[in-house]
Amino acid sequence: MNEDIKEILYSKEQIEEISKKIGAQLTIDYAGKKPLVICVLKGAILFMADIIRKMDTYTEIDFMDVSSYGDSTVSSGEVKIIKDLDVPVEGRNVLIIEDIIDTGKTLQCIVSLLKHRKAQSVKICTLLDKPERRVEGVVPNYVGFQVPNEFVVGYGLDYQGMYRNLPYVGILKEEIYENN
Ligand code: XMP
Ligand code: MG
């Protein structure tokens, strides 16, 4: 699997360190607020598992699955809810955990939905941010790392369902996806 990776951008140790930092900040910011932490499936599962273990607050979790990409590396611009939340968000302090913000379309859609459902507050925590490609005015509140405009995989991020289990974030070789 490693031979499909052009370059490792962020190691397991770097991700561990940033999760600790963000978790400590969230512990302060959400003290006494009993946040509802929403994991955007499937890419954010590893990062969420790290973050919530570092949040020393009463915390509830839920999951949402949306799709905008299909199997391509380019956004279709369409966001579809595949699995909705189980927990009502009205009056809750919601923290969305994402793997990566690219165009911002996915989060734009999730944030407006949560606001429409009367969440008290909605904040975004993302492992990776690709600001170069942003078309929506989504600004994450907590960011692990910024990444260049390359297709990255690992630590939850996939290409055609693969590579999510890599313990680091790396750039996928173009030859893996260029003929698809
Ligand atoms: P938007 O464009 O809506 O996209 O901000 C967010 C979603 O797109 C996926 N995405 C990627 N997945 N490597 C991936 O594995 C990437 O470089 C990449 N860029 C965007 C991701 O699922 C994210 O939730
Ligand atoms: Mg995703």
TrEMBL record:
It catalyses: IMP + diphosphate = hypoxanthine + 5-phospho-alpha-D-ribose 1-diphosphate; GMP + diphosphate = guanine + 5-phospho-alpha-D-ribose 1-diphosphate. Its EC number is 2.4.2.8. Residues 9-160 form the Phosphoribosyltransferase domain. CDD domains: PRTases_typeI. Pathway: Purine metabolism; IMP biosynthesis via salvage pathway; IMP from hypoxanthine: step 1/1; Purine metabolism; GMP biosynthesis via salvage pathway; GMP from guanine: step 1/1. InterPro entries: HGPRT, Hxn_phspho_trans, PRTase-like, PRTase_dom. It is found in: Cytoplasm. GO terms for molecular function: guanine phosphoribosyltransferase activity; hypoxanthine phosphoribosyltransferase activity; magnesium ion binding; nucleotide binding. Belongs to the purine/pyrimidine phosphoribosyltransferase family. This is Hypoxanthine phosphoribosyltransferase.
